[in-house]
Write a structure and sequence with these properties.
Length: 362
């Protein structure tokens, strides 16, 4: 990389770091309780990170999450440090977009319990039940469908996800025809069966498929569970993402929910779901199965050492993969930590590795 390339890389890193910190520091002002770190707490954080990576880190996330949760932890991880350093050393950045394509899940995880895809659009080519079809036939085959999920193949945060019903070619999306809807999505989208979730999950909110977000770390022959949280949709909502109004709370090692859930960047603690279920101590079904399942799946993706898995539990108690994320965020509000008891180990193991984020950047 020449001098100009290095300057561009440095500028890009500074701009990205600024953007990553902006939202949290802005939302800190909206919190009802704002706690400042004491001198002793600042020293504890600084000593911790200097011992790991040889330097201090910005303290804005420690202050924000301490304010929001009331729990101080030296293990909170600044968003820019996690996104631009930890994730990029853990995962091969250049492969991320290809593997994030939801249309290839059945290929990556052949033989595993993955949500069933009815129709795929991949780079403009259509496949119905795994067989290539013309656009005309794709439209014809989707003239009558009930309660299926339409989503972008490489979307995030629940953007573009719709509960779709079609009767005689007319959809429930602004009364558009199937052909009009396909034209709106253009290419790289899919239609999936809607998961029939376990009653214990549906009781938390029946309109959304509520998912366990399990963050895993692959190291040698081990797959560690960094943390598990559950994401719960709000009344009438189809998706459960926090950025779309959903809430999340931590899950204990025996599959029980934590006391309080958190919503957006500044929403107060939520103790009861919209359906009236008290969260604290609520027992999830088949949690041990879900843990074993994601550990097995992670070994099939060797280019990514940190992965976020969105898992639901079907009516029969079996875990099913909804999505996985090779660029997952950290649920530090719900978890009250960065990566919990594994924070020090993960940073120590990853820090010597090369950062792949800006490789080839000119």
């Amino acid at each position: 990389m020449g001098l100009l390339g290095k300057l561009r890389k440095s500028f890009r890193k500074r701009q990205l770091a600024k953007a990553l910190t902006k939202k949290i520091t802005r939302n800190f002002k909206d919190l009802k309780v704002r706690r400042k770190l004491t001198r002793a707490q600042k020293k504890e954080v600084n000593d911790f990170y200097k011992g790991l990576i040889g330097r201090k880190v910005p303290l804005y996330c420690h202050e924000y999450f301490y304010s929001r949760t009331g729990v101080f932890s030296k293990d909170y991880i600044p968003k820019d440090f996690y996104t631009m350093e930890i994730l990029q050393k853990a995962n091969v950045y250049q492969f991320r977009d290809a593997y994030d394509d939801k249309n290839i899940y059945d290929i990556l995880f052949a033989g595993e319990n993955v949500v069933h895809t009815i129709l795929k659009n991949m780079n403009g080519y259509y496949y119905y039940e795994g067989e290539p079809v013309s656009e005309e036939n794709a439209v014809r085959l989707c003239q009558n469908m009930e309660n299926v999920i339409l989503k972008p193949a490489m979307g995030k945060h629940g953007d573009g996800v719709k509960l779709l019903t079609v009767k005689d070619g007319k959809t429930n999306v602004n009364n558009m025809t199937v052909r009009e809807l396909f034209k709106q999505y253009k290419h790289n989208f899919l239609i999936q069966e809607r998961v029939k979730q376990h009653k214990k999950l549906a009781d938390l909110n029946p309109t959304s498929v509520n998912t366990l977000r399990i963050l895993t770390y692959h190291s040698g022959m081990e797959v560690l569970i960094i943390y598990s949280v559950i994401r719960i949709g709000r009344n009438g909502q189809v998706i459960d993402n926090q950025c779309a109004g959903g809430i999340s709370t931590t899950i204990s090692k025996d599959g029980k929910l934590g006391k309080a859930a958190f919503g957006g960047y500044s929403e107060d603690n939520v103790l009861v779901s919209d359906t009236g279920v008290t969260l604290e101590g609520y027992q999830l079904p088949s949690y041990d199965k879900a843990i074993a399942y994601v550990k097995r799946l992670h070994t099939k993706l060797p280019y990514f050492n940190i992965i976020g898995w969105d898992i639901s539990i079907e009516e029969n108690g079996e875990p099913i993969l909804i999505e996985f994320n090779t660029h997952p965020g950290l649920s530090q509000s719900a978890f009250c930590s960065g990566m919990g008891e594994n924070t020090e180990r993960i940073i120590r193991e990853l820090w010597p590795k090369r950062n792949t984020m800006f490789e080839g950047y000119e």
